[in-house]
Amino acid sequence: MFEPLLARVHIKYGCRTFTLLGVTLKMSTRSKGYVEVGGREHYKTLARLTHVPSVSAPAGAVGIVESSLVPSLVLKLKTELDDIQELILDTLSGCLRVEAFEALASGGVHILKEKLIHESVAIRSKAARALLGISVPLEGKNIVWEEEVIPELFNLLEDADDQVRANAAGALMNAAITTQGKYAALGANAIPCLLNLINDETSKVRLNSVKALTMLAEAPEGRKTLLSHVDQFKERMNDSSEAVSRAASIAVRVIEWKP
Amino acid sequence: MASLLPAREEVAASGTYTYCSRPRSLPTRRKYRDTPEETFHYANLMYERRVVRGNTYALHVLPWSAQPDPLEIQRQREAHRKALARKRAKDQLQPGTPEPVEGRKHVDVSLAMTYLQKLGDRIVEVDVECQTDAFLDRPPTPLFIPAKTGRDVATQIEEGELFDFDIEVKPMLEVLVGKTIEQALLEVMEEEELANLRAHQYAYEELRNAELAEVQRLEEQERRHREEKERRKNQQLQILQKQKETSEKIAARAFAQRYLADLIPSVFGSLRDSGYFYDPVERGLCCLLSFIYSNTIRKGIKKLAVTSEVYSPFLTQYW
Asked: What are the ranges of the HEAT repeats (chain A) (predicted)?
């Protein structure tokens, strides 16, 4: 198949033949059961398309969303082999940046929740990343709370792999924006776990956990608990990564806010 | 038969020859030959002499009219004349038998009957037969070795006559190796670039997620503050409302109280004035007495009336 070549051409010139790919993917997704070997290239190409650099949003992701491949991709997530699932999750994360409604409508949250407890590390981290993307719009946050994904995310916070931790913290950060998410997180005793993660090595983990704690500090109970740990945040203000220091200063401000 | 006649009549009319014949069945064949009756003249197109057959390119077409064309006649005459002339010329050119010499006479002789000779030497003839054995196998075909034609020529390239491989191959090798290495370098650079790009993208995504979360948090905060403000405002409004209501109620109550303060005395006063408070014994006595009085007065008045009526004529008479 000429998919690898096609993918290179896309990455180089960013041309718009994703509709053609979409058609071929649709034809291969319509076949029941596991996809044949050549189909892996379809998914790879799709995953690569979402990373095509573009000014506002990846053109590939836009194209995939427009060709309404997202529902079928979500459905395929249930049945496909592991490595293909990774590729699908990659593609989905890219597409979710553009628009998350279709994935939500096709029950994406439920499927991703199942993937969170998968054995493979890559799938867990990618599933957490997809959850991050899905919980950006308000409906996503509500559905995440309804499906009680938040307790699952806490288990992932203590995972060995740092990407998994980072993505889980990020998903928590997004889910805890709504009041009910906040209280769900506080109820599951999130603050100690997240406080440990503030001093993690990976900057992404630190950033996401600081942000998640900021969300929780909006609630009065959270603020009370975190007031005692303000100095940890103050340490983080001198962090190497600029984003982390900024986030830490915002967190300090939020914690010390008096109504 | 009958159908032939009308066809022929049409010849003179239209000028073209048409022919048609109704198909007829064969008559039943008789077993015994009878006296031949008048035979029907069938006009079978296949045996019609008037139908042109064969090559039609160079036909001797019949003249249009019965009259032969004068041009044709002339041509025929000329051809005839030419043929005669040719024949005469031919006779003149070819010498015939010369005239007989004096004293001799030409005689026609036939060699057929008289001068026959008997052939003496007869050639000995022997019949010889040759036939292969019926059940012999076919012998193998002899090898066909074609006759040698042409010239044998040999050539041999000695060492050192052609190019020197090592020297010649260098530029080609350089090009090949160079191109391969270049390609490999390009690919590696591309991959590196891609990896860079991806790393950049991850960093960006991280930042973006963080910023997005921040934005949403601020939004949420804003929303909450706003809602809180709204609620408090509403609460305040309600308090004010309640206060107003209570003050109005108080005012109303005070006014009502004042209004109704002298209600009872005035009521009692008016009742007393209308005589609703009375001593029943006194009332009873008064009623009885008034009753008796009224009766007496009525009687008195009646009496007075009667007397006045009786005495009025007398009074009028005397006034």
From this structure: 149-185, 190-225
pLDDT at A100: 73
8 Å CB contact of A218 and B210: no
Nearest CA among A154, A112, A155 for reference residue A133? A112
- Nearest chain A residue (CA) to B202: A204
Query: At B3, is the secondary structure helix, strand, or coil?
Result: coil
Give the mutation candidate from B197, B202, B216 for the A interface (greatest A CB count, under 10 A).
B216
Which chain B positions have a beta carbon within 8 Å of A243's beta carbon? 206-207, 210
Please answer whether residues A199 and A157 qualify as being in contact, where contact means their C-beta atoms are separated by less than 8 angstroms: no
Round to whole Å and give the CA distance between A1 and A21.
12
Q: Which is more confident, B143 or A160?
A: B143
Q: What is the identity of the amino acid at A220?
A: P
Contact A51 B210 (CB under 8 A): no
Question: Which regions in chain A score pLDDT beneath 50?
Answer: 1-3, 9-18, 27-38, 53-57
Pick among A12, A182, A204, A255 to test the B interface (most B CBs inside 10 A): A204
Each domain of chain B, given as residue ranges in start order, spans: 164-272
Measured CA to CA, the distance from residue B319 to residue B317 in angstroms comes to 6
Radius of gyration for the alpha carbons in chain A, expressed in angstroms and rounded: 20
Q: Is A57 on the interface with B (CB under 8 A)?
A: no
Q: Which residues of A touch B197 (CB under 8 A)?
A: 51, 53
Cα distances (Å, whole numbers) of residue A80 to A36, A112, A127, B292: 10, 14, 15, 125
Tokens of B280: 């029943």
Q: Which residue has the tokens 């029941």?
A: A32
* Closest chain A residue to the Cα of B219, Cα to Cα: A177
* Closest CA in chain A for residue B214: A211
In order, the DSSP letters of B86-119 are HHHHHHHHS--PPPPPTT--------SSS-----
Do residue B220 and residue A218 have CB atoms under 8 angstroms apart?
yes
DSSP B45: G
Q: What is the pLDDT of residues B14-47, one digit of tens each?
A: 678 787 878 888 877 777 766 655 556 667 888 8
**By C-alpha distance, which of A98, A31, A30 is closest to A66?**
A98
- Regarding predicted confidence, which is higher, A33 or B274? B274
Which element (helix H / strand E) includes B19?
A: none
Q: Which of A215, A239, A249, A253 should we substitute to test contact with B (largest number of B Cβ atoms within 10 Å)?
A: A215
**pLDDT at B179 (0 to 100):** 96
User: CB distance A177–B207 less than 8 Å?
Assistant: no
Element (H, E) at B62: none
The pLDDT mean for chain B works out to 82
